[in-house]
Amino acid sequence: MECEMSQLKLGLPKGSLEVATINLFEKAGWLIKPAARNYFPKIDDPELDCSICRPQEMSRYVESGMLDAGITGKDWTMENQSEIVVVSDLVYSKVSNRPTRWVVAVAGDSDIKTLEDLEGKKISTELVGVSERFFKDLGINVEIEFSWGATEAKVVAGLVDAVVEVTETENTIRAHGLRIIYELMESNTQFIANKEAWENPWKREKIENMCLLLQGALKADRIVGLKMNVAAEQLDEIVAMLPSVNAPTVAGLSDAEWFSVETVISKDIVRDLVPRLHKVGAEGIIEYALNKVI
Predict the structure, then answer these.
(1) What start-end ranges are recorded for coiled-coil regions in this protein (predicted)?
(2) pLDDT averaged per 10 residues in sequence order, the chain, 294 residues
(3) What domains, with CATH codes, occur in the chain?
């Protein structure tokens, strides 16, 4: 009699993070195919059973055991005060791959300058629980109302005095003529797990392996490989110019007077470094993308 195959029930975020998450999984080694009007995408791993759900609800589903694990925002696990295991921080987003920020913003011409000026005022936000606890701890009495969307516009329309809103680039906030008076918190994407699932040896190993590869894919997204041929007389000078995760790899070529030098470096510096390397004698310089760095 064949044993039933184990499966991990995994929640993927719907909405703004959906495409970025699917792309990250592909780079980490999993191909996910969303189906139109279907909340159960196909994945090329028989050990995974995927569901799509809103990040705002993910931690509740994981806490209840409806999902073994999921990807959501730190902000929503804090909002729901869910009893879950935070396995790993995965810092990526739909735009900048930096943590998002929840900020308190008011109209550009508002007399409100500080948090204390919000005493007795009305604030609109999706992050009601976190906002209420924040202002209560400060001893500032405010009225917090839940926003179903278009939060920034409510200040412009005069419906509320301020908003607590999430931002990556501040573009939307500036476009509505708002002014940030306080940064409430930073948030990033997290891989979370149900406590019972985490105690299951098979599920725990599966989750840990997934996080290892996802983190490797994220790390690789910020760096590139660089390979070049270097004459012996320039070797020390060029190696000294190369930043690296570890020391650059240096290998001899069939021509004893030349070496192959290889390293990985940040994308931010490669455009400045390559011309300098070429100027001092590096040849056959190749830049290549990386899928994962573990």
Answers:
(1) none
(2) 71 91 94 85 96 95 97 96 95 73 95 96 97 97 93 90 93 92 95 97 97 94 92 94 81 91 90 94 94 90
(3) 8-95+189-220 (3.40.190.10), 100-186 (3.40.190.10), 223-288 (3.30.70.120)
